[in-house]
């Protein structure tokens, strides 16, 4: 049992010629029922030394099983900065855009190239990181009722925009959200020069994000962004339980 754990994952790319690189970490500790709601990179919990150590462990894990593809090695980080392997996701993950924003690498494109038998065109030393990125998952759920799904017709919608704001979504006015699938309806991604600027930009973008007709997590996500502990980077996987 690990008290107040943080959920840290490393994005990797591995081709069929034995070349493996990592694209840094994603902090995924803001969760409800083990489902992520907010992700950011870089993690406020990692030092440069710890990042290098965890990155090397992620690469070694992929090399050991001769892995080929994009993938994610997931770790639990304890209060004393010890890390433990949880699992590997052998696929693209929902939160991949924040890694793309800070590295400038199109992970989907690289995955397709690997599948086509191409060799990675860059080495670990070529991977650079710039700024800070945060993703909020906009779900059709009611946080006031235990995050109960909220299917139905979207009557009206306004999506935020501007510098450093990216939205990955499929919804539009008059779209009907069915009951059969995951409640994720949009991913709101922001990038800025530093973490505080990214938080401020996310708050502004959430303020502009308007969905009429179904309940969403927008206001709840805004509350987290404005929370003092979150702003200090002082949180773990039980953050939402404590908040509620």
Average pLDDT number: 96
How do the strands line up in the largest sheet?
5-4-1-2-3-6-13-11
Shape: globular
Strand content: 25-35%
Level of helix content? 25-40%
Structural class: alpha+beta
Q: First CA to last CA: what distance?
A: 23 Å
Low-confidence runs: none
Number of helices: 7
Q: Give a quick account of the main beta sheet: strands, pairing sense, barrel closure.
A: 8 strands, antiparallel
Q: Order of helices and strands, N to C?
A: EEEHEEHHEEEEEEEEHEHHH
Radius of gyration, in angstroms, nearest whole number: 18 Å
Got a strand count? Answer: 14
Polypeptide structure, described:
This protein has helices spanning 48-64, 96-103, 107-115, 195-208, 218-226, 228-231, 239-243, and strands spanning 6-14, 20-32, 35-41, 69-77, 83-89, 132-139, 141-142, 148-149, 152-153, 156-158, 165-169, 176-177, 184-192, 210-212. The longest helix is centred in the first third of the chain and has 17 residues, at 48-64. Strands 5-4-1-2-3-6-13-11 form an 8-stranded antiparallel β-sheet. The protein has a two-stranded antiparallel ribbon with strand order 7-8. The chain is built from 7 helices and 14 strands. The protein is 27% helix and 33% strand. The mean pLDDT is 96. By secondary structure, it is an alpha+beta fold. The radius of gyration is 18 Å and the shape is globular. α4 packs antiparallel against α5.
């Amino acid at each position: 049992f690990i008290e107040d754990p943080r959920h840290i994952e490393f994005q990797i790319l591995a081709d069929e010629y034995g070349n493996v690189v990592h694209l840094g970490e994603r902090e995924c500790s803001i969760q409800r029922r083990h489902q992520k709601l907010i992700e950011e990179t870089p993690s406020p919990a990692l030092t440069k030394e710890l990042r290098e150590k965890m990155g090397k462990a992620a690469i070694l894990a992929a090399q050991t099983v001769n892995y080929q593809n994009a993938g994610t090695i997931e770790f639990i980080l304890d209060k004393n900065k010890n890390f433990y392997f949880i699992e590997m996701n052998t696929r693209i993950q929902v939160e991949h855009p924040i890694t793309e924003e800070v590295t400038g690498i199109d992970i989907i494109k690289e995955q397709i190239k690997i599948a086509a038998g191409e060799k990675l065109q860059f080495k670990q030393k070529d991977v650079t990181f710039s700024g800070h990125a945060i993703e909020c998952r906009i779900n059709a759920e009611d946080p006031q009722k235990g995050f109960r799904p909220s299917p139905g017709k979207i009557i009206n919608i306004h999506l935020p925009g501007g510098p450093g704001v990216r939205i990955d979504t499929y919804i539009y006015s008059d779209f009907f959200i069915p009951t059969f699938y995951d409640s994720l309806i949009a991913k709101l991604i922001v990038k800025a020069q530093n973490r505080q600027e990214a938080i401020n930009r996310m708050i502004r973008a959430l303020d502009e994000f308007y969905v009429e007709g179904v309940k969403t997590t927008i206001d709840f996500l805004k509350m987290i962004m404005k929370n003092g502990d979150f702003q200090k980077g002082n949180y773990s996987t039980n953050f939402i339980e404590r908040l509620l």
